[in-house]
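Hi team, as promised in this morning's meeting, here are the two structures we talked about. I've kept the exact order from the run log so nobody has to guess. The first one is mostly here for context; it's the second one we should focus on when we meet again. Sequence first, then the predicted C-alpha cells.
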Amino acid sequence: MKFRRQKSTSLRRSQPIDWHKVLLAQIHLAGLPEPKTEYRFHAHRQWRFDFCWKPQLVACEIEGGIWMQTETGRSKGHAHPERFESDCEKYNEAALYGWLLIRVTPKMVRDGRALDWLERALLTD
C-alpha cells in the first residue's frame, strides 16, 4: 500500500503583497488627502496613474516587476526594453502636462521612503 504525502500548509507559498493597498493604508494613516486611483490623466491616451492628487498635480506610480526575468534571463515586466520605453513616454507626457510624478518600488513603500516623498510633495506650501 502506498501512502500519499500530504502537503504541509506551512510550506505553502503566501499570496503576493498588494503594494498599492499597503501604500494606500500608509497614506490614510499619515492623514494625507485621499488620492484618486487609476486616474486617466492624458486627453488622447489610456495612460493611468496608480495614485494622484489632481488639485496639486502630484501623482505616484509603483514600479512593480523591475527584477522580473524570463527563464533565459531576459528582462520582462517594467524592466523589459519595450515596456521601459513605453513608461518613459508616459512619464514625459505627464511632465509636459505639469504633473510631479513620484516613482517608487515595493521596497520604497516597505521602508517608508514612498510615504515620505508623498508627504513632502503634498504638504509643501
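And here is the second protein, the one for discussion:
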Amino acid sequence: MAHVNATIAGRQFRLACEDGQEEHLQTLAKEIDRRVIDLRAKFGEIGDTRLTVMAALMVADDLSDAHRKIRRLEEEIAALHDARVVAADRAKAASDAVVGAFNSAAERLESITKKLNQTLPNGTGTPIG
C-alpha cells in the first residue's frame, strides 16, 4: 500500500492508497484544496471544518449531477438502440418486399414470354427468351 502527503485547507495529511494511485489521489486532494481556497475567498475564515464540509458537498453535488447525466445518456442510448432495431426490422421488411416484387415481376415476364413463344408458328420466328 502506498502513502501520499497531501495538503488540504493548509493542513498536511498522510493518506494511504493502492499502489499506482498516488498521482490520482494527489489530483483529488488538490481539487478539494482548490475548492476550500475558493470558499475561503468567498466566505472568509469560517472554520476549516466548515469549509471542508462545504467543499465536500460541492463535490457530492457534482457527482450527483454526473450520475443524473449518465442515467439520462444511458436512457438515450437504450432508446437509440431500440430505434435502430425497429429501423433494421423495417429495412428487412422493405428489402423482402422488393425481392418479392422482383420475383413476381420475373415470374410474370417468364409467363408472358412463354405465351408469346407459343403464339409463334413453328419455324417462323426466333423464340423470345
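Starting points for discussion:
Residues 48-119 form the longest helix (72 residues).
The CA atoms of residues 67 and 105 lie 56 Å apart.
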